[in-house]
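Example 3.2
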Amino acid sequence: MARRKYLYIKAVILSSLLWVFPVSAGVMVSGLQCEYLSDPLGIDTATPRFTWKISDTANNRGQKQTGYQVLVASSPVLLDEGTGDIWDSGHVRSSQSVLVPFAGNKLNSGEDCYWKVMVFDKNKKPSPWSPTARFSMGLLDPNDWTGPWIKHPTAPKEEHIWFRKTISLKEKPALSFLYVASVGYHELYVNGQRVDTRVLAPALTRLDKRVLYVTYDITGALRAGNNCIAIWTAPGWSRYDFFQTEPALRVQLNAKLINGDTVSVPSDTSWRCEVSSSEDIGGCQYRDHGGELINAQKYDPDWNAVGYDDEGWAHAATASIGALLSAQMVEPSRIIGTIPAQSISGTGLYKVDLGTNFSGWISVKMRDQSARDVVTIQVSDNPGTAQAFGQKSIYICKGGPSETFQNRFNYTGGRYLTIIGLRNKPELSDIVGHVIGTDLTRVGHFTCSSELFNKIYETDLRTYRANTVEGYTEDCPHRERLGYGEEQFATAWGCGIANYDAGAFYTKIVRDWCDVQKSNGWINQTAPQVNRHYGGPMWSSAPLNISWEFYKNYGDTQILTESYATDRAWLDFLASNTVDGLLQPYNTDYNKGGNFLGDWAEPYQMGDRLKGKEFGNTREALLFNNCVYALNLSTFVKIAKTLGRSHDAAIYGKRLEDLKSKVQASFFNPVENTYLDSRQIHLAFPMFAGITSDNVKPEVYANFEKEIQETRPYLDMGSSGLPVLLKFLIEDTERNDILAALLSKTTEPGYGYFLSRGETTWPEYWDDNCPSRIHTCYTGIAAWFIKGLGGIREDPACYGYQSFIIRPALVGDLTFAEAETASLYGTIISRWEKKNGMIHLNVTIPVNSTATVYVPATTIKNVTESGMTIHRAKGVTFVKMQGHYAVFRVQSGTYQFASKDYN
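Structure, written as tokens:
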């Protein structure tokens, strides 16, 4: 009581001071996040970090934060009073507005927290308080779970199960959190009503090692008297043989009543369970992820209601699950869009085209079906195939004037439906595709004068979203559904981080990869699944590669620390498989070097796709993977230096120099100044990895130019070569002219060719003979539109985008381009246009950040900003002329540069 009184007095004093010191005009704080999430419930990070964005409606250039105050309270009422009874940071003089660590007393399991921020602007004037945000703590100690895992005592694994528990409360609770962990999927109902809009919960992890739990605030759903907690479960990935687990459920209800009493209800054998009206059909394996059988005859609409007679249901049995429980700290899967049917043809057997490939659920409304009619829905991504990869669901009708089939615990990938068993032809409005995806907020956008480029960019993102469904990015949504490492690296760099608010998502992704490492240091080629599929070092190095890209964009060293031991053990594994200084194939499980693949599915000699695959017993794979090893060592040395681990930096730096010398001596042809057969990847990768010695690099690069512009004037890359070749062209050499020329083509092979033949997502191979038409093999080209044409990229001198670079590329016959992305500080925009002999470049720099802006020009005399000469422009400092650019340091704000077109 005394502390609360003290805090109240302090709050009154602070409030009065705001009248003494005028509030900053126009400065507002919004976009509050805790651990990259908005209002997360049930986090299990002991020291959460806070991020906020600052805007200035007055558009004052150079606006920045000079200080902040964070209040964290146990209730919104206290927070509104200005009382931070959990933490009051006081006035902290700092420009840090991202990832600010909580510094109060230790937070407890289940603690409910409300917080807000005030910042001080460049003139040290305070802003108004931000809107209130919320977070709560999860169950931080394993002993907080007071009940066992439970399961149906006899049901086969493929069945979907109803669980329910009736509880009685003396009064309506003041606060009630329900923690639900499931091996497989779950949906939560309280007193007959669905709680939350998430689907396919929880996000997928390596289920034999880690299971995520979801925290639900069910305070508003509970009432005095009897209440029913009901959960519908399905096996999901527990049927996947490599996990060697079983469907199971674990629940913990912790409620606090208004009178201060607490109520705890765990899962135990007193819970009742029953086989529901649906089940999985088909498999959970390569080429068969099946569908659902829904028997409307068996559905009981009152199964989750209060007062329902469940005496005939079985008591739950205990289950033996040894996996670690962790909070789901990533956005859930949700319905993120709908796709209406475009055409229906046929009689009796109906063919439906939804117009675009997608991943999600199918909804089919039926009319005048008889009881026990059987309707079959097949799905394909290929118009010539009725059913692709076991994608079939069955609906047994209840009968009546109208009823609807819709998926619940599985999803499909495709656009073409074959429906058998309808008594009446459906209308177009009767059939809908519901797009399912991890609910990431899009922050990246691009448009330009080339409609082809616009379509390539959007198709790349559509492909990424179609394969980012359950908290990870998969290769395809139908045939394998596996998180291959080279594709996750490419899509993180090319699609995810630049175009989506993806901090929480990639934090989970990196942990998934740490979870699939073996004791000898080898890392599985997919995550979160483990298996025995093909892959190689570029696949297994995903945690190292993604964590470094994450750090460059978010400036968050915590992810480097958390993956550091995994990265080091991986490099030690590679070192143990060297002979005479070169990495050698370590494959033992497959013929043809299946664990040591080089580039994969490149278009080289497309007539035989096997010639576009570098198996581990080839010289091509040996060069590629030694370059991967060198790249990994180089990245790890940077990580070690960033974390202040100079001893490791020296050790692995020495390994890197030795390896570079050995690769150069073993693969370089000094007569021709080439590597192997002079293919694009074979030339680019040694240069990208720093292997090519400086004295021959110009000659090697000249050969690369000839190869990509004359010999094979297309992107000669596969899934593992894609991030190498694109990074080399965009980041290392800035050859945006080459990319513009290649991407303008509609001939085979290429992205334009895909679009010319009607593809709506990228296929698995560059040619027509393709088993999968929704695939991330070639996804990541979206990076060029933001980083290349828009020129928005990180500043190597200041990772994290508090300082960044805008260096647009004016290439080809483009007349304008506009790129938009968002950092943790706010929205970044780069828009250029050629018009009437002038080049106009408009840029937006978020508050509390700065940028180095490259304005196309041959002399500073030709550059103006907002119609003024540069020396009169506020917030702009000339740095130097560099090539055809005038380089400026620019403070936060919006700017309109103009220069004479030099072409």
